[in-house]
Design a protein that fits this description.
- The structure is a single chain.
- By secondary structure, this protein is mainly alpha-helical.
- The chain is built from 3 helices and 2 strands.
- It has a two-stranded antiparallel ribbon with strand order 1-2.
- The protein has one domain.
- The protein is globular and about 25 Å long.
């Protein structure tokens, strides 16, 4: 969800974690799975706790 909000909707990284948390609890598993599929199943790097490709977004 973070990747989608940051890269597709251009949500500021300072706000994206909270917004993702809210959406993840509001959306069904079917919708979340569809978003993952649409995005090509982005990988999460747990060492930096960010999704690859969004660390430079503002």
């Amino acid at each position: 969800m973070i990747y989608f909000l940051a890269t597709k909707l251009k949500i500021n990284l300072k706000e994206v974690h909270l917004e993702a948390e809210i959406l993840e609890h509001a959306l069904s598993e079917k919708i979340l799975s569809s978003i993952d599929e649409f995005l090509g199943y982005p990988e999460k790097d747990t060492h930096i706790q960010e999704y690859r490709g969004i660390s430079n977004l503002k």
